[in-house]
Amino acid sequence: MNIKIFINGFGCVGRALAKIIVEKRDVIEKKYGLRIEVVAIKDSRGAVFSSEGLDINDLLKLIEYPRSSIGLYEPYGRMDIGLDEIYDQCSPDIHVELTPSNYDGGEPGISNVLYALKRGANVVLANKAALVYKFREIMGIARKKGLVVKYKATVMGGTPFIDILLSLKTIHVSKIYGILNATTNYVLTYMHRHLVDLDEALGNAKSIGIAEKNPIYDIEGIDAAAKLVIMSNTLGIPLGINDVMRTSLRNVSLKDIVDALRKGEVIKYIAQIDFEEQLAEVAPRRIESNNMLAGIDGLMNAVVIEHEYGNIFFSGKGGGCRETASMVLEDILSASMRGV
Amino acid sequence: MNIKIFINGFGCVGRALAKIIVEKRDVIEKKYGLRIEVVAIKDSRGAVFSSEGLDINDLLKLIEYPRSSIGLYEPYGRMDIGLDEIYDQCSPDIHVELTPSNYDGGEPGISNVLYALKRGANVVLANKAALVYKFREIMGIARKKGLVVKYKATVMGGTPFIDILLSLKTIHVSKIYGILNATTNYVLTYMHRHLVDLDEALGNAKSIGIAEKNPIYDIEGIDAAAKLVIMSNTLGIPLGINDVMRTSLRNVSLKDIVDALRKGEVIKYIAQIDFEEQLAEVAPRRIESNNMLAGIDGLMNAVVIEHEYGNIFFSGKGGGCRETASMVLEDILSASMRGV
């Protein structure tokens, strides 16, 4: 069976996805009988598309193309092109939404996802903001139309963590807490190890590409809050991003770290939802060093789920382009094989 | 939508499942639009069935009925009844296989599951042995018939661990290792804490109902080996139970424990598959005390998955009747809502 996918957004995750598809397409076809065809890729300024599917050479060249310029690619590129034409020409089975998360309203992710559903495509997202603002609406429309929306890559992007929550449909979860943002965990780990202040640690993270130039979503807890919103809604419990209290990581000084270390503790940037107390927050917290979260360093993430039968502890890579893309690909497969 | 389920096997997990269904049926109907009807329950000597579904009073009384005697229950009980008549009368949508795992060939689980598929029922298992001996055959038949076979309860029974493996379809897993048997982990923890030998620890485990009277499947590593077989096959890599090398927990003396503790280590009963080396084994191993597995005590289980992008660590309750039943119920829901 051929699965026609449309990659909307072609930054680091999109390019990693294209690369993994090139590498693994034949194995996937052999193992699962699914042939993944990339029929369209769009960036912020243009798109390439071919209703037959782009071939391996096209994909390899596009991966190396400068940012926001794939519309110039010959012969399939077109600048200034809208979703209408892409859908009319290519009829994708799966819309992969990889535009950046925008926490000032959620666009263009929201409109793109709603458009895809309107046109009858299943949706796979790494973009968090669309779900943060419109989780229930998006899921409701998908359900009515018999489509699926998958989003494993949005939380602990390098792991299938969301699937654990999806398998707790009948189990009462009282609390979830953990380390959900890789950038700030890297920064905190660096502060503890090198005894430097936040700005120096952040400078290091920027220099090696772990932190963005303006990492406000990370440092102010917005990214972690967004993940809490997605996790809560996955469990069927509404939570808006403005319901999450946030304390900036900027509040952590080198002195705080030294004080904590002297007492055999560490400081972690903890995101938590307490469903009993109806409390959601992201804040720096002191953790005793024998707590399992204390050992989760660098780019690792970890979550504790307290439920009616005990605790689940889960840790894995928080993100990374290829890691995130690998979970997008898992969702593409699971959307294609639903019911299996 | 009504979902008619047939519970085949009515020991501690079956009874816990019936109880959870009584408690949560209305919530599940409200939240997911699924009405779970128990149309039949069978134990080793008889069965109760009603094509309309047993009501709450029936279920509550049956939960308290003596073992292997539900066939005497009035007016729905019947002794000495076969699957044919149950299927003819009740046409279950989902067959829930909870007979005990038998590692001397896998019966009656295998025949029961194959029968269910032949009759067009989806299958949910807590019975491991049927999958251990016939994983590929069972999955192949299900796929051909458009049915699903779910088995979350078979590995780390109180958690949705299997779903993690199912979401690693395109990711190369090189190694899986961990603590997969709750009984032996309890026994080992007891030996470390009280500095007693295996038989004394086992006596304690039996006295509080954690170990069976004859816990050979646990102590000889057969249960853990069975779980490795299911895990490997879930990843699409064939492995038979006889391919798993086993070293009995009986090899661990109190002296070994004391020696390990003196060196800041602990002994754990580790199950592992190394896919590169094509090696699967269950054996007592010394673990340094700063290893995350060293802190997994008592009835907890934990697994490390080494894959191409890093490690996933997962821990949770290994079993327990209600915990296992809760995962059976999750599978019933996911089989009912497939494609959603």
Structural key phrases:
Rossmann fold; alpha/beta; homodimer; 12 helices; 340 residues; 2 domains; globular; Dihydrodipicolinate Reductase, domain 2; 6-stranded mixed beta sheet; 7-stranded mixed beta sheet
What does the model show?
2 copies of one chain form a homodimer. Chain A is an alpha/beta fold. Chain A folds into 2 domains: 2-157 and 321-336, 3-Layer(aba) Sandwich (Rossmann fold); 164-317, Dihydrodipicolinate Reductase, domain 2. Chain A is 40% helix and 23% strand. The first copy, chain A, is built from 12 helices and 13 strands. In chain A, the strands form 2 sheets. In chain A, strands 4-3-2-1-5-6-7 form a 7-stranded mixed beta sheet, sandwiched between helices. In chain A, strands 9-11-10-8-12-13 form a 6-stranded mixed beta sheet. In chain A, helix 5 (129-145) links the parallel strand 6 (122-125) and strand 7. The radius of gyration of chain A is 21 Å and the shape is globular. The two termini of chain A are 14 Å apart. The relative contact order of chain A is 0.14. Chains A and B meet through helix 1, helix 6, strand 13 and helix 12 of A and helix 1, helix 6, strand 13 and helix 12 of B. Strand 13 (310-317) of chain A pairs antiparallel with strand 13 of chain B.
What's the structural blueprint in terms of helices and strands?
2 copies of one chain form a homodimer.
Chain A: E1 2-8, H1 12-32, E2 35-42, E3 46-49, H2 56-64, E4 77-79, H3 83-90, E5 94-97, H4 109-118, E6 122-125, H5 129-145, E7 149-150, H6 161-166, E8 173-179, H7 182-194, H8 198-207, H9 216-219, H10 222-234, E9 244-246, H11 254-262, E10 265-274, E11 279-288, E12 300-307, E13 310-317, H12 321-336
Parallel strand pairs in A: 1-2, 1-5, 5-6, 6-7, 9-11
Antiparallel strand pairs in A: 2-3, 3-4, 8-10, 8-12, 10-11, 12-13
Helix pairs in contact in A: 1-2, 1-12, 4-5, 5-10, 7-8
